[in-house]
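Propose amino acids for all 619 sites.
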C-alpha cells in the first residue's frame, strides 16, 4: 500500500485532542444551598468531570477516534498495486533486439524486461488471459493466450537475447489477430523504443501500453561497413567503416584485423552527433577475413565489431540502352568484372514488349526511359522513370550541390564537392523515393526501391556537367554496378543477423549436405535433400560463417550495422508513437486500485453510529 498525499497524516494529531476533550472539567456556577441531600446526583456529575481523572471506557470516544482515523486515511488517498493492465486479454510483446543488451540497467535491459514480464504474471487476476511474444527482426511466440501462470513463467525463463535489429510490426499484427473481438483487450510493449515497424494499424478496441526500459543513451558503434575493389587487382580493396556515437562520447580507436592479426589502428572522433567515416586500403587473397573493432567504453558491446570478407570478382552482365555515350561505354568497358552489352532505344523497346529484356544484373538507361519498367535493377540518366508519382517539373539552371548521403552504399567513396551542373531536372517524386544528392534545385540523384524493383536516377545530362572529368564519376558508376548489380553490399558477403545465404551446389557427385561452421566454431550440416540448391537461415549471431560443400568454400561476415540499434537512447513514454498515436504508459496500470473511498465510507458509517449512540444513550 502507498499514499498519494501522505501529508494528510499530520491531521492524526487531532486524535489526542479528542481524548483530551474527555478530560476537561465543566465550569459550573457556585450557589449556596441549605442541604445537599437533593443534590447527590449533581455531586456525582462533578466528580465525573473532575480534571484529568482516569479515563473510563466510553463507546462514544472509541467511535469518534475510529471515525477520525478513517477520515485521515481517506485524505491520504491510499492506493494498492493491482493488476498490471486493465484488460482481461493481454498480449505482452518483449523486445529482444540488439539494443536490449545495453547494460545501463544492470545486468541488461532484456533482464529488466524479463523481470517486468514476470511481475505482470504475478499480478494476473483469476479470469485474465495473456500471451507472450518476443521479437527482434521476426516475432517468436513464447506462450499462446492462456491463464496458466506456470506456463507463462517457463516461457519467460527461456527468453534469450538476439543480435538482430528490432521490428515490432509482425509481433503487433500477431497480437492484434489473437485479441481481435475480445473484451478489454490490451497490448503491453516492453522495449526501449528503438525498434521499427511501428506504423502498423491495429483494430479498434485494442489499447497499446508502452513500458520504457533503459535509463540513458551512452554508446558508440560501427553502423556501416562496405568494400570496394581498387583497380584490376582482385586482392586490393577499399574498406569503408562508418561509426556513430551518442551520449557525449567524443572519441575512440578503430582497429583493423586481417585474418585475426592487427594491421592498423586509427583515432576516430565524433562532433555534434555527426558520424565519422574511415577508409582503409586492404590487400589480401580472396576469402581473407576482415574485422573492424571499435575500442570505446559504452553500454553496448555488440556493435563495436564488424566483419567482412575479401571477395573474388564476380562477372556481371550490364546492358547499356543509349544512342551513344562515349563516357559511359568506355567506363563500363574498363571494369574487368563487367560484360557490357549495348543497344539503341528503338531496338530495346520491342524486346521489352516481348518480355525479352531481362537477364542482366543492371540496365543503364541513358537519356531515355520506356513506358514501363519490369522487375530488375536500373540506372537512369537524365530521363523520367515510369514510376507512379514520379514526374518532371521542368528544367532548372545551375544547381549548387548542398549535401549527399555519404553513408549510403551507392554514395560511399565518392566526393561530390564542387560538382558543376549547367542544367538539371526538377522533380516531383513520392515519399518512398530516397534523395541521395541534394542541390539548391532539389535532388540530383535519387533511389527508388519497391519490392523487386530498384532504380537509381541521375537528374542531369553528363554532357551538361563536368562530372565525367571528376573522380566521383567512375567511383559512382562502378559502385552502382556493384551494389545495384548484386543487390547486396560486399558482393553478398557482408550480411546482417537473420539474413539468409542461398547456396547452389556445383560439386559432382552431388553432396549430401552443406557444411557450416559458425562464429563459435561449432559445425553443423544442412542436407541438400536431393536438389542442388539450399538456403541457410541460421545467421543469428555476429561473426564469420564458413560454408562448404566439398568443392566450393565461402566465408561470410555477419555484423549488426544498425543506426537504430546503436542509438541506445530509450524513447520516453511521452514521445513513443504507434500508428501516429501516442501509446499509453504501462506504469500507471501497475497501481490503480484506490482505497480511499473505502476509508471514507467507514468514517461516515462510524459517525452515524456515534450519533445514534449519543441520542439513544448507548453508553
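Proposal:
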Amino acid at each position: 500500500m502507498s499514499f498519494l498525499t501522505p501529508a494528510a497524516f499530520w491531521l492524526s494529531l487531532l486524535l489526542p485532542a479528542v481524548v483530551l476533550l474527555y478530560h476537561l472539567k465543566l465550569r459550573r456556577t457556585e450557589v449556596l444551598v441549605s442541604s445537599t441531600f437533593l443534590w447527590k446526583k449533581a455531586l456525582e456529575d462533578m466528580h465525573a468531570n473532575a480534571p484529568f481523572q482516569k479515563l473510563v471506557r466510553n463507546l462514544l470516544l472509541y467511535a469518534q477516534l475510529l471515525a477520525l482515523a478513517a477520515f485521515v486515511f481517506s485524505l491520504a488517498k491510499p492506493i494498492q498495486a493491482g493488476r498490471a493492465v486493465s484488460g482481461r486479454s493481454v498480449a505482452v510483446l518483449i523486445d529482444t533486439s540488439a539494443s536490449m543488451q545495453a547494460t545501463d540497467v544492470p545486468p541488461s535491459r532484456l533482464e529488466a524486461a524479463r523481470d517486468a514480464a514476470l511481475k505482470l504474471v504475478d499480478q494476473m487476476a483469476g479470469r485474465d488471459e495473456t500471451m507472450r511474444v518476443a521479437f527482434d527482426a521476426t516475432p517468436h511466440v513464447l506462450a499462446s493466450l492462456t491463464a496458466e501462470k506456470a506456463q507463462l513463467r517457463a516461457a519467460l525463463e527461456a527468453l534469450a537475447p538476439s543480435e538482430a535489429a528490432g521490428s515490432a510490426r509482425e509481433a503487433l499484427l500477431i497480437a492484434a489477430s489473437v485479441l481481435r473481438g475480445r473484451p478489454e483487450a490490451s497490448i503491453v510493449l516492453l522495449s526501449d523504443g528503438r525498434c521499427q515497424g511501428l506504423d502498423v494499424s491495429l483494430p479498434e478496441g485494442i489499447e497499446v501500453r508502452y513500458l520504457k526500459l533503459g535509463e540513458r543513451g551512452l554508446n558508440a558503434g560501427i553502423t556501416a561497413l562496405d568494400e570496394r575493389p581498387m583497380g584490376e587487382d582482385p586482392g586490393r580493396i577499399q574498406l569503408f567503416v562508418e561509426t556513430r556515437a551518442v551520449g557525449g562520447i567524443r572519441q575512440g580507436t578503430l582497429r583493423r584485423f586481417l585474418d585475426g592479426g592487427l594491421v592498423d589502428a586509427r583515432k576516430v572522433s565524433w562532433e555534434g552527433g555527426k558520424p565519422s567515416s574511415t577508409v582503409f586500403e586492404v590487400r589480401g587473397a580472396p576469402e581473407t577475413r576482415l574485422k573492424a573493432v571499435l575500442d570505446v567504453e559504452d553500454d553496448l558491446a555488440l556493435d563495436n565489431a564488424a566483419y567482412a570478407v575479401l571477395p573474388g570478382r564476380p562477372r556481371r552482365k550490364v546492358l547499356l540502352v543509349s544512342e551513344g555515350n562515349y563516357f559511359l561505354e568506355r567506363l563500363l568497358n574498363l571494369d574487368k568484372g563487367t560484360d557490357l552489352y549495348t543497344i539503341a532505344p528503338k531496338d530495346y523497346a520491342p524486346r521489352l514488349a516481348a518480355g525479352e529484356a531481362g537477364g542482366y544484373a543492371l540496365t543503364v538507361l541513358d537519356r531515355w526511359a520506356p513506358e514501363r519498367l519490369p522487375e530488375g535493377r536500373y540506372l537512369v540518366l537524365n530521363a523520367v522513370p515510369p514510376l507512379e508519382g514520379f514526374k518532371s517539373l521542368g528544367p532548372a539552371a545551375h544547381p549548387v550541390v548542398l549535401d549527399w548521403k555519404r553513408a549510403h552504399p551507392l554514395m560511399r567513396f565518392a566526393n561530390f564537392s564542387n560538382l558543376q551542373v549547367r542544367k538539371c531536372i526538377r522533380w516531383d517524386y513520392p515519399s518512398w523515393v530516397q534523395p541521395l544528392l541534394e542541390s539548391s534545385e532539389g535532388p540530383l540523384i535519387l533511389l527508388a526501391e519497391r519490392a523487386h524493383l530498384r532504380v537509381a536516377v541521375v537528374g542531369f545530362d553528363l554532357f551538361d556537367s563536368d562530372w565525367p572529368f571528376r573522380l566521383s564519376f567512375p567511383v559512382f558508376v562502378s559502385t552502382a554496378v556493384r551494389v545495384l548489380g548484386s543487390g547486396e553490399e560486399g558482393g553478398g558477403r557482408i550480411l546482417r543477423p537473420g539474413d539468409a545465404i542461398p547456396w547452389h551446389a556445383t560439386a559432382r557427385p552431388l553432396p549430401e549436405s552443406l557444411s557450416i561452421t559458425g562464429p563459435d566454431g561449432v559445425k553443423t550440416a544442412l542436407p541438400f535433400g536431393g536438389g542442388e540448391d539450399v538456403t541457410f537461415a541460421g545467421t543469428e549471431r555476429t561473426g564469420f560463417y564458413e560454408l562448404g560443400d566439398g568443392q566450393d568454400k565461402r566465408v561470410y561476415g555477419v555484423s549488426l550495422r544498425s543506426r537504430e540499434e546503436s542509438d541506445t537512447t530509450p524513447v520516453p513514454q511521452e514521445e513513443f508513437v504507434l500508428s501516429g498515436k501516442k501509446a499509453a504508459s504501462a506504469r500507471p496500470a501497475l497501481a490503480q486500485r484506490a482505497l480511499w473511498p473505502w476509508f471514507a465510507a467507514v468514517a461516515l458509517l462510524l459517525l452515524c453510529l456515534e450519533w445514534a449512540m449519543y441520542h439513544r444513550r448507548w453508553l
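Residues 83-87 have pLDDT under 50 and may be disordered. The first helix runs from residue 14 to 21.
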